[in-house]
Amino acid sequence: DGKSQCWFIGDKQMYDVGSSANAGWPEPFPSHPPTYATAHPASYDAKARLEYMDSIGCWAQVVYPNVGGFGSQEFLKMGDSELMLACVQAYNDFQRDWAEPDPRRFVTMIAMPFWNVDQSVKEIERSAKNGHKGVLFTAAPQDYGLPVLAEFDRIPSEARFA
Fold first, then answer.
1. Among residues 7, 3, 27, 9, which one has the least CA distance to residue 17?
2. Helix (H) or strand (E) holding 23
3. 81-95: pLDDT as tens digits
4. How many of the other CB atoms lie within 10 Å of CB of 156?
5. Which of 55, 132, 49, 48 has its CA nearest to residue 88?
6. Against a cut of 0.85, is the pTM above it?
7. Strand 61-63 vs strand 6-9: parallel, antiparallel, or unpaired?
8. Between helices 81-98 and 117-129, what is the axis angle to 10°?
9. Exposed / middle / buried, residue 43 (Cβ in 10 Å: 0-12, 13-18, 19+)
């Protein structure tokens, strides 16, 4: 519309930057700030977020990846497996950097390269060492041409509870 700033992956417009910047926004969802300049600083600045959290009586907050889609599906659309993994890793690293003002109060969840089980396992291990506390994983991998979640198991069923 010419009035909103937008996220892009390559030349593909994704969504407005303010759609994930609702902290402190005075209007109810789905309304959101059209630009970072109109967004509350707590939506993008960790120190301002801590001040905002203090003002509303919130001690901790779960921080989850959303720019690449709640399940990282937007990265999958890139089509280049090395670039997709690099974007997931960069996003996960960014979250830990962003949480640095108080890593106890920002509980970070990782994005997953869910399209590759081996990469997912490695990213969980790498991210856990970096301080992440949880995983955000698509609930419907079949929507992206992959097996249903129940078929992602790498351990034979007879060995699961041994």
1. 7
2. none
3. 898 899 899 999 999
4. 8
5. 132
6. no
7. unpaired
8. 20
9. buried
